[in-house]
């Protein structure tokens, strides 16, 4: 099959709809999709029938509503297309009702107390803007998932709401510029990093199996120091994996585009071509799922944890974000007329305002137990949120603020709406990789996300926060008598109010921490520091004003994230204990026993001979064994004292301050022992094997 035939071959996309739906139905559905309207039940019936026929032609027997509960992964429950008729026969059927609405018994999904058990069922509702597709022989209907009270129980619902909010406000602003855009859509291109390790090695490590990351492991002699993996030639086994991932993703209509080796050994990246954010979010979930599945077919395991290996770069996800009008105009493109320049500057300051005022929310949106090991570790952006604009754009804003002329490359910019912005060369804006939030020519790149994150969370924040800046601007400018003068004043005022968030320097440098503090920027080093900000008054006000979250929904989400943190640390601690007690300590003891036997054998053989080598090792290893034993006790003690009657925040603080630190202590002693015990006596594969045997 050619690539063109392959692409989207498992998607009920526009082309298929046009072919298979009656003209009227197609038109009505298209209108629903383009304008974000509600779907007429009669149309739903016709669409469902066509979808079923199409699916059956592809050998499909089941359908599922495909949704994204707050477990971070996608959920599905398969139903066959069968309906019994008389005489014990069945027919294949799929009704409009079954298409648009499902009622999974979802009492086991996290709800943060939103859904009491007596009304355990939530319901799923079709998101017609995201095409149905066939995965593993099942027709998947992308849906949003809510409680009966209408509260969002998933990642998608708030994302759709935030897109609405952004569109509403952006259209108001565009109207002031004489543009008659009917909708504005946020666009996203998420770059996805991941590790591949050998499946046989993986199966020997309880930590990888239960937690997705290594809890023990001494640094190998070689890591990423030489930089010889980044963009290096892709090994055949990995190449075969990538080819199959691409094929699978193309069939699903995912625009998989770029692939390369990343900085760490065994680390890789895939980037799709950007698309509208809810589709990008669905596609990124599919991408992660396909990567995991295809890896196993190649005897590999795809690790998506934020930091699978200590001392080696972790995996993130870069959320490239912009806004586009329904007429295809990128609002973060500087353009080349005075008019476009003015409009660009207004949208630019809207983002700067949003990121400054809602830095806490952006930090919250990437907060997880796993990402704490990555952020601020000189491999990923610091936990402090700031914006990189590049020197040229920064100087332009400075000149505007100070009322001086900016002259460069034969251009000059003095007054917004009168003068043109100079072209901002992309490579100028893209060099600083230490910034969490960088302008890269015609979009912003948010780089703080951990690899396994749903991109929904941060896009909900971005869309809503920018909607709020735009709302304030529209309120002000709609009243203005002289639009251009008012626009100029507003932009200048915004630059001076929010320029503290702009930082073009090295985000990894310790001096930045001090500087950021002086500027009054937030530094929330751990998820536990960040998460409670979700329900700060100003944030509740933001989300409720734009109808993205109710206060109840926000509180529920905060609760779920904190509970998740507590559970993850709990599972990690139990796993570490089990490995230390049942694998590491016995191995160390076996070897010290052997050494002691040898030492006394040497002495017995000839007392004048030296057993110093054995004795030296014995000294160090028996010290390690004692330390491991002590620290097992300490960790057990810490785990035992978690007070589960406290609220989620108190428990999370406890896990971070007591359990996590006890785990780190245990690890240090075990990792030292690993460097002394022969490989054939060490109970599980080492970093060297995991990272260099693919
Ligand atoms: P880099 O590795 O230099 O950051 P890549 O080319 O790997 O760059 O990734 C850039 C990502 O940004 C791609 O997914 C691309 O489709 C996406 N992108 C480009 N333009 C936009 C836009 N207007 N809106 C959102 N994403 C975009
Ligand atoms: Mg990038």
Question: What report would you give on this structure?
Answer:
The protein is of the alpha+beta class and 694 residues long. The chain folds into three domains: 3-154, Ubiquitin-like (UB roll) (Roll); 162-549, Glutamine synthetase/guanido kinase, catalytic domain (Creatine Kinase, Chain A, domain 2); 564-692, Four Helix Bundle (Hemerythrin (Met), subunit A). It is 48% helix and 13% strand. The chain is built from 23 helices and 19 strands. The strands form four sheets. Strands 9, 10, 11, 12, 13, 14, 15, 18 and 19 form a nine-stranded mixed beta sheet that branches. Strand 16 and strand 17 (411-413) form a beta hairpin. Helix 11 packs parallel to helix 16 (483-498) and helix 21 (612-640) packs antiparallel against helix 22. The chain is globular and about 100 Å long. 48% of the residues are buried. The model has no long low-confidence stretch (mean pLDDT 92). Magnesium ion (MG) binds at residues 191, 318, 445.
Fold blueprint:
Blueprint: H1 3-6, H2 14-20, H3 23-35, H4 41-57, E1 62-66, E2 79-80, E3 82-84, E4 90-92, H5 96-100, E5 101-102, E6 123-126, E7 133-135, E8 138-146, H6 156-176, E9 184-198, H7 199-202, H8 206-211, H9 236-251, E10 256-261, E11 267-272, E12 275-276, H10 277-297, E13 300-303, E14 316-325, H11 338-357, H12 359-365, E15 387-388, H13 391-402, E16 406-408, E17 411-413, H14 426-429, E18 437-439, E19 444-450, H15 456-478, H16 483-498, H17 510-518, H18 527-530, H19 537-545, H20 551-605, H21 612-640, H22 648-674, H23 687-692
Parallel strand pairs: 1-8, 15-18
Antiparallel strand pairs: 1-2, 3-4, 5-6, 6-8, 7-8, 9-11, 9-12, 9-13, 9-14, 10-11, 14-19, 16-17, 18-19
Helix pairs in contact: 6-15, 9-10, 11-15, 11-16, 12-15, 13-16, 15-16, 20-21, 20-22, 21-22
């Amino acid at each position: 099959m050619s690539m063109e035939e392959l692409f989207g071959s498992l998607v009920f996309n526009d082309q298929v709809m046009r072919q298979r739906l009656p003209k009227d139905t197609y038109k009505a559905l298209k209108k629903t999709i383009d304008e974000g309207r509600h779907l007429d039940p009669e149309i739903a019936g016709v669409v469902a029938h066509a979808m079923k026929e199409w699916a059956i032609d592809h050998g499909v027997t089941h359908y599922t509503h495909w949704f994204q509960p707050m477990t971070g992964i996608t959920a599905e429950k398969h139903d066959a297309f069968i309906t019994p008729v008389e005489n014990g026969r069945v027919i294949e059927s799929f009704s409009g009702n079954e298409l648009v609405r499902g009622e999974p018994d979802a009492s086991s999904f996290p709800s943060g107390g939103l859904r009491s058990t007596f009304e355990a069922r939530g319901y799923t509702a079709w998101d017609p803007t995201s095409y149905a597709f066939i995965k593993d022989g099942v027709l998947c209907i992308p849906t949003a998932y809510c409680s009966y009270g209408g509260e969002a129980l998933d990642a998608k619902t708030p994302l759709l709401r935030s897109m609405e909010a952004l569109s509403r406000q952006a259209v108001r602003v565009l109207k002031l510029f004489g543009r008659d855009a009917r909708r504005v859509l946020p666009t996203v291109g998420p770059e996805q990093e991941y590790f591949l390790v050998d499946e046989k090695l993986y199966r020997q490590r309880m930590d990888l199996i239960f937690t997705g990351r290594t809890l023990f492991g001494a640094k190998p002699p070689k890591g990423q120091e030489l930089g010889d993996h980044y963009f290096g030639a892709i090994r055949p086994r990995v190449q075969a994996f990538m080819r199959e991932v691409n094929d699978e993703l193309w069939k699903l209509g995912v625009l998989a585009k770029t692939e390369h080796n990343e900085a760490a050994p065994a680390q890789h990246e895939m980037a799709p071509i950007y698309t509208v954010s809810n589709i990008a979010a669905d596609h990124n979930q599919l991408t992660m799922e396909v990567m995991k599945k295809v890896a196993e077919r190649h005897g590999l395991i795809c690790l998506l944890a934020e930091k699978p290996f200590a001392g080696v770069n972790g995996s993130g996800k870069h959320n490239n974000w912009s806004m586009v009008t329904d007429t295809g105009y990128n609002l973060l493109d500087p353009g080349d007329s005075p008019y476009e320049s003015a409009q660009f500057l207004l949208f630019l300051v809207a983002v700067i305002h949003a990121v400054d005022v809602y830095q806490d929310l952006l930090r919250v949106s990437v907060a997880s137990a796993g990402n704490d090991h990555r952020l601020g570790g000189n491999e990923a952006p610091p936990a402090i949120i700031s914006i990189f604009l590049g020197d040229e754009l920064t100087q332009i804003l400075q000149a505007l603020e100070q009322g001086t002329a900016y002259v460069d490359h034969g251009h000059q910019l003095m007054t917004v709406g009168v003068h043109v912005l100079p072209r901002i060369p992309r490579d100028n804006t893209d060099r600083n990789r230490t910034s969490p939030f960088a302008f890269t020519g015609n979009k912003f790149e948010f780089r703080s996300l951990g690899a396994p994150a749903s991109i929904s969370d941060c896009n909900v924040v971005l869309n809503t926060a920018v909607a709020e800046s735009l709302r304030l601007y529209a309120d002000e400018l709609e009243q203005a008598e002289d639009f251009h003068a008012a626009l100029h004043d507003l932009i200048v005022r915004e630059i001076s109010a929010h320029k503290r968030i702009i930082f073009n320097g090295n985000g990894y440098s310790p001096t930045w921490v001090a500087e950021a503090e002086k500027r009054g920027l937030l530094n929330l080093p751990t998820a536990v520091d960040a998460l409670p900000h979700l329900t700060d008054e100003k944030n509740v006000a933001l989300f409720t004003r734009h109808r993205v979250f109710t206060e109840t929904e926000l509180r529920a989400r905060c609760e779920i994230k904190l509970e998740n943190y507590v559970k993850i640390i709990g599972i990690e601690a139990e796993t570490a204990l089990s490995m230390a007690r049942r694998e590491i300590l016995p191995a160390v003891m076996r070897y010290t026993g052997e050494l002691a036997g040898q030492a006394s054998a040497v002495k017995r053989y000839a007392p004048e001979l030296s057993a110093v080598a054995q004795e030296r090792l014995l000294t160090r290893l028996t010290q390690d064994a004692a330390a491991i034993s002590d620290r097992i006790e300490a960790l057990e003690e810490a785990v035992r004292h978690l007070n589960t009657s406290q609220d989620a925040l108190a428990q999370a603080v406890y896990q971070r301050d007591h359990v996590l630190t006890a785990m780190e202590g245990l690890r240090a002693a075990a990792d030292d022992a690993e460097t002394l015990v022969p490989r054939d006596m060490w109970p599980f594969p080492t970093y060297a094997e995991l990272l260099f045997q693919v």
